[in-house]
Every structure is written in structure tokens, then in C-alpha cells.
């Protein structure tokens, strides 16, 4: 089956006549008719019913057209990709980021990035850290931003930032008047907690165990921004990541250090056998600049 045969068939289906297809292809009607006959003979099926000089597509023709259209769409995608690559700084960048950075930090970084690489298409996949690690192992991303430590091998990891979780409390709460919130002060407070698989939950549980207490929680979530809004609604006190705390609107909410310090480490994860592009290096550099600007080196 040749591309010319498929092109002739497609044009006949789209224009509805052999003459229309011939005009589109720049060939004679008889040449197009011969091409259609050769396609039918090769496939062993009848694609058109011929009546009084007209052709009527069979049911198989419509099914074949669907398959051809999918193929043409794939060709169009390839052509678009080639066009982007031909332009300076073109291409496609695929990254996975944890929600703490994916909600606001990364979009702001992409705003700066787009001014330098306007032709680069960027796909941002927001996932939990363990899923980002899996995607890096599968070589399906250019890089990811995930909470450390990691459990797998087969990826390259560089420390992106090392800071600490912070406490979030309503501004009208008594604890908002202090310079920090301690785990002892939370002994009898309602805390908005994390799911058991989350590293923040494990760190928080350890802090409570150190004072022979346990977290008193009536609500839990795996997103810091959700916990932040729960605090605003008066549902309790939360311990969240510093990136979310920095960018979230602080109306009616106070952000204070938490003691003991609960480490929040973010790593840049790269597939071990996938070379890093210039665009990826530039985006990472922009993110590092933003990290430094908000004091989270």
C-alpha cells in the first residue's frame, strides 16, 4: 500500500468525487480511478460502489478513512515537532513536580522561561513525589522536583533546596502571637494532618512521639494549599511546606516557624541515561534564582 493510494482515496472521500480528488492531487480523473482500483485490488475489498458515473463509498471506506485520518494527524504532529525543533530553542520539555511547587512556584518560573524560550512547549505533570521518582526511572520526563529522600536507583539526584516545614495558624489564635509554634504547644490543639504515607506526617508523628503525645486530627489532606485554606476556615493548625506558605494569600493567617525543625528537602531528579537539554538547564537555573529570591536556598 503506497502513500499515493491513500492520498487519492482520502481526497475522493473528502471531496466526494473523482474529479474533485484529481484537482486536489493535480492528476487526471482516469489516473485517480486507476489508483483507486489498484488500492481495492491490493486490499481485497470493495471501497466504492460505481453507479452511472458516480462512486458511492462502502461502509469499509468510512472505517478506512478514520484510520487514515489518525495517521495524517500523527504526520501533522511530527511536522509541528520538526518545525519547533528547527526554530531556535524549540522542542518539548516534560517535567513532573510535587504539588508544593507545582501550584504557584513552577508557573511563575515558566513565565520567565517563556520569555527566553517562546518556542518550547512545556508539559507540567503535578504528582506525588513517589510517582515522580517512578517517572524518572521510566525515562519519561526531562527532570522532576520531588521531596527527598528517594528510595530507587537509576536516577540522578541533586539537592535543590533544604529548608523546613512551617506552622500555619489563624491570626486570631493565641499561638499566632508568638515567634514560633512548638510541638508541645500543639499537644491539646486540633491539627490538620497528612495521610500516613506522606513524609510530613511521618516527621510530625515523630515530633509528637518525642513528647509522648499523638496528633489530634479531625481533618487530613495531602495538599499543603488545602491545609492552608482549612486553617483559614478555622479547622485547626497545620504544618505545611515553605513554598506553599510563601505564595499563599496570608489574609487572616499567620506563618510561623515550627519547633523542632522538620526538614523539607527538595531534589532535582533526572533520568540517568537521558541527556539534559539546554532548555531544561535554563529552566532549572530560573527555578534556582526564584528559590534564592524567596530565601529557600
UniProtKB/TrEMBL annotation:
Query: What biological process terms from GO does the record include?
Result: positive regulation of gene expression
Q: Which GO terms describe its molecular function?
A: DNA-binding transcription factor activity; sequence-specific DNA binding
Q: Which UniProt keywords apply?
A: DNA-binding, Transcription, Transcription regulation
Protein name (database record): LysR family transcriptional regulator
Question: What SUPFAM superfamilies does this protein map onto?
Answer: Periplasmic binding protein-like II, Winged helix' DNA-binding domain
Domain of life here?
Answer: Bacteria
**Where are the annotated coiled coils located?**
none
A Pfam family cross-referenced in the UniProt record is LysR_substrate
| PROSITE patterns given in the database record | HTH_LYSR (PS50931)
What Gene3D superfamilies does its record include? Answer: 3.40.190.290, Winged helix-like DNA-binding domain superfamily/Winged helix DNA-binding domain (1.10.10.10)
Which source organism does the UniProt entry give? Mesorhizobium denitrificans
Amino acid at each position: 500500500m503506497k502513500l499515493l493510494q491513500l492520498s487519492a482515496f482520502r481526497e475522493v472521500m473528502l471531496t466526494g468525487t473523482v474529479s474533485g480528488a484529481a484537482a486536489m492531487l493535480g492528476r487526471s480523473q482516469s489516473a485517480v480511478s486507476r489508483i483507486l482500483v489498484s488500492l481495492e485490488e491490493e486490499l481485497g475489498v470493495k471501497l466504492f460502489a460505481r453507479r452511472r458515473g458516480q462512486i458511492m463509498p462502502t461502509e469499509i471506506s468510512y472505517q478506512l478513512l478514520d484510520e487514515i485520518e489518525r495517521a495524517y494527524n500523527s504526520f501533522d504532529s511530527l511536522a509541528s515537532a520538526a518545525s519547533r525543533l528547527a526554530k531556535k530553542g524549540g522542542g518539548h520539555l516534560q517535567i513532573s513536580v510535587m504539588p508544593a511547587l507545582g501550584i504557584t512556584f513552577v508557573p511563575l518560573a515558566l513565565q520567565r522561561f517563556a520569555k527566553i524560550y517562546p518556542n518550547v512547549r512545556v508539559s507540567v505533570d503535578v504528582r506525588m513525589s513517589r510517582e515522580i521518582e517512578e517517572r524518572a526511572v521510566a525515562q519519561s520526563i526531562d527532570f522532576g522536583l520531588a521531596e527527598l529522600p528517594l528510595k530507587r536507583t537509576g536516577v540522578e539526584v541533586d539537592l535543590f533546596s533544604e529548608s523546613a516545614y512551617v506552622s500555619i495558624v489563624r491570626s486570631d489564635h493565641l499561638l499566632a502571637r508568638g515567634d514560633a509554634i512548638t510541638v508541645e504547644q500543639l499537644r491539646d490543639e486540633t491539627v490538620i494532618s497528612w495521610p500516613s504515607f506522606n513524609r510530613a506526617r511521618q516527621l510530625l508523628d515523630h515530633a509528637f512521639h518525642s513528647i509522648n503525645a499523638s496528633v489530634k486530627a479531625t481533618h487530613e489532606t495531602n495538599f499543603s494549599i488545602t491545609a492552608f485554606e482549612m486553617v483559614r476556615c478555622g479547622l485547626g493548625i497545620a504544618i505545611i511546606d515553605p513554598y506553599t506558605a510563601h505564595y499563599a494569600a496570608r489574609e487572616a493567617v499567620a506563618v510561623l516557624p515550627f519547633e523542632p525543625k522538620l526538614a523539607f528537602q527538595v531534589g532535582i531528579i533526572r533520568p540517568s541515561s537521558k541527556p539534559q537539554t539546554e532548555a531544561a538547564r535554563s529552566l532549572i537555573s530560573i527555578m534556582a534564582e526564584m528559590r534564592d529570591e524567596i530565601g529557600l536556598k
